[in-house]
Amino acid sequence: MDGLMVPMEHVLVIAGLLFICGLFGLMLRRNIIFMLMSLEVMLNSAALAFIAAGAHWGQADGQIIFMLILTVAAAEVAVGLGLVLQIQRRFKTLDMDQAHRLRG
Amino acid sequence: MLATLFYIAALIALTSTMAALTRANAAHALIYLIVSLLAVAVMFFLMGAPFAAALEVVIYAGAIMVLFVFVIMMLNLGDTGEDREREWLAGRNWFVPGAMAALLLIEMLMVLGDFQGVTSGNAVSPKAVGIRLFGPYLLAVEIASMLLLSSLVGAYHLGRRFIVRRGEH
C-alpha cells in the first residue's frame, strides 16, 4: 500500500484550493503585506502537493523539494519585507496602486 | 479515523486561509495564517512526513511569520497604537484562531497516543531524507545556501537604509 491514508487526488484538490485562495488574494488585495502573505500561501500549497506525491510513492524527494521551497519562501519574504519598509518610507502608504512611479 | 483527522485539518487549513486573506487588519490576518500553517503541518505529519511537519512549524510558522510580525509592528507605530493594542486584546479577535489551534493540538495528541497511526504505510524517515539530501541533491543544497546568502545581503541592504534614516529624523 502507499503511504497515504486518503486518496492522493483529495490532497491535490486541497492543495489546488489553497493555491486558488492565494492567487485570488494576490489579485484582489492591494496591500503589499497581504500580497506577500498570498505568495506564502501559494508556495505552501505547492509544498503540500510535493509532500503528498513523496508520501504516495514513498520517496524522500518530496520532502527535499519541500525544503527547497522553504528556502525560496524565506529568501523571498526577507527581501520582500525589506522592500515593504522602503515603500512605506518613500510613498507613505502600503497601497500598491499608489506606488506606480516605475511605470514612467 | 486518521483520514477523518486529515480532512478536519484540511478544512481548518482552508477556512483559516480564506479568513486570513479577507481580514482588513494585517495582525488578525497573521494569526489566521499561522493557524493555516499549523494545519498544513498536521497534514504533513499525517501523511508520514514528520521532518517536513517540524520544519513547517519551526521555519514557516516560527521564523517567517515572526518577520511579518516585526514589520507590521514597525509600520503600525503611531498615536493610535494604544487603542489598537486594546482592541487586539479583546476576546473576539483571538477566540476563533485559538479554537482552531486547540483543535489541531487535540488532533496531534490523538495521533501521538495512537502510535500505530504514525507509522502506518511507508512513512519517509528524516534519515532517508538526510541521506538523499547530501547524496544526489548536494548541488541543490549549495544553490539553496547561495540563495539564502544573497537574500541575507539584499535584506540587510534594504533594511539598513531604513533604520539609518529613521534614526536621523
Descriptive report:
Chain A: InterPro entries: NADH_UbQ_OxRdtase_chain4L/K (IPR001133), NUOK/Mnh_C1-like (IPR039428). Chain A: Belongs to the complex I subunit 4L family. Chain A: Keywords: Cell membrane, Membrane, NAD, Oxidoreductase, Quinone, Translocase, Transmembrane, Transmembrane helix, Transport, Ubiquinone. Chain A: Its main location: membrane. The complex is a heterodimer of chains A (104) and B (169). With 104 residues, chain A is mainly α. Chain A has one domain: Helix Hairpins (Orthogonal Bundle). In chain A, 75% of the residues lie in helices and 0% in strands. In chain A, α2 (32-57) runs antiparallel to α3. The longest helix of chain A is centred in the last third of the chain and has 31 residues, at 61-91. The relative contact order of chain A is 0.14. Chain B folds into two domains: 1-102 and 116-122, Up-down Bundle (Four Helix Bundle (Hemerythrin (Met), subunit A)), CATH 1.20.120.1200; 125-162. Helices cover 84% and strands 0% of the residues of chain B. Chain B is built from eight helices and no strands. Chain B has helices spanning 2-21, 26-46, 50-75, 81-88, 91-113, 115-119, 126-133, 138-168. Chain B is flat. The termini of chain B are far apart. Classes of the chains: A mainly alpha (104), B mainly alpha (169). The interface between A and B is large, with 60 and 65 residues.
Uncertain residue ranges of chain A? none
The average pLDDT of chain B is 82
- CATH topology type of the largest domain in chain B: Four Helix Bundle (Hemerythrin (Met), subunit A)
**Helix proportion range of chain A:** over 70%
Distance from first to last alpha carbon of chain B: 60 Å
Count the E strands of chain B.
0
Number of helices of chain B: 8
Portion of residues in beta strands of chain B equals: under 5%
Amount of helix of chain B: over 70%
User: What's the CATH C level of chain A?
Assistant: Mainly Alpha
Strands of chain A, total number? 0
Mean pLDDT of chain A: 87
